[in-house]
């Protein structure tokens, strides 16, 4: 049994990407849970940094937690400051963690279709570069995301994309398509010519015993407030 399969056997396991080996990080499971995670699970002594996610293409460079003020609106962060644990929350959108270990820079992005199309992944890499990272050394990992087989969309949605993106849509019932969000995110990352891109291939919708899915909860008339956290920090 490989490490990923073994982790998935434990509902509370921390899921990690081999592409980010040596960098403290983790994709956490989350069934109807909104409680902030204990940073010690990823990086003992680290301070958790979160933003107010709004499905934007905005990425910030951070060097300290946001204290005593509302969290800024953004959907990605980058840091070169040890002791910070960057965190994003998702419930079908793609969580993407980045690291340039040589430069000592990490990043985290929340990439729903709007953010990915708008450039949130590119903005994250740009912020990392301003902190000294080199894209040829940046590795990225795509965590639990709704899979194409679970993501039905309509004609209006499909028309928001260019013809060159047609390969990310598969025709379904009349007027319906299946959209491949993780493949689209991977494509945007590969266009950046990073050192490595790892898609863990985990479907939030189908894995109901491990992940919260906003779409699944909506379809079932269940509570839709659950989220899962994806976290990354610099090695101590």
Automatic annotation (TrEMBL):
It comes from the Bacteria. One of its GO terms (molecular function) is hydrolase activity. It catalyses: S-methyl-5'-thioadenosine + phosphate = 5-(methylsulfanyl)-alpha-D-ribose 1-phosphate + adenine; inosine + phosphate = alpha-D-ribose 1-phosphate + hypoxanthine; adenosine + phosphate = alpha-D-ribose 1-phosphate + adenine; adenosine + H2O + H(+) = inosine + NH4(+). Keywords: Hydrolase, Metal-binding, Transferase, Zinc. It comes from Aurantiacibacter aquimixticola. InterPro entries: Cu_polyphenol_OxRdtase, Cu_polyphenol_OxRdtase_sf, Cytotoxic_necrot_fac-like_cat. This is Purine nucleoside phosphorylase. CDD domains: YfiH. Belongs to the purine nucleoside phosphorylase YfiH/LACC1 family.
């Amino acid at each position: 049994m490989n490490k990923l399969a073994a982790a998935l056997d434990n509902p509370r396991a921390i899921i990690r990407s081999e592409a980010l080996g040596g960098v403290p990080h983790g994709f956490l499971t989350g069934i109807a849970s909104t409680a902030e995670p204990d940073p010690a699970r990823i990086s003992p002594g680290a301070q958790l940094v979160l933003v107010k996610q709004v499905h934007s293409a905005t990425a910030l460079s951070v060097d300290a937690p946001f204290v005593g003020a509302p969290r800024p609106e953004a959907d990605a962060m980058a840091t070169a400051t040890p002791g910070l644990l960057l965190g994003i929350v998702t419930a079908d959108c793609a969580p993407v963690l980045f690291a340039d270990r040589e430069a000592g820079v990490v990043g985290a992005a929340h990439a729903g279709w709007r953010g990915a199309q708008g450039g949130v992944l590119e903005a994250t890499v740009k912020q990392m570069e301003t902190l000294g990272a080199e894209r040829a050394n940046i590795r990225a990992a795509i965590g639990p995301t709704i899979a194409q087989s679970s993501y039905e969309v309509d004609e209006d949605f499909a028309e928001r994309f260019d013809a060159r993106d047609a390969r990310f849509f598969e025709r379904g019932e009349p007027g319906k398509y299946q959209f491949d969000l993780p493949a689209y995110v991977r494509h945007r990352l590969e266009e950046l010519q990073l050192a490595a891109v790892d898609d863990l291939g985990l479907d939030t919708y189908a894995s109901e015993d491990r992940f919260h899915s906003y779409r699944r909860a909506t379809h079932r008339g269940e509570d839709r407030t659950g989220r899962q956290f994806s976290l990354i920090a610099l090695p101590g």
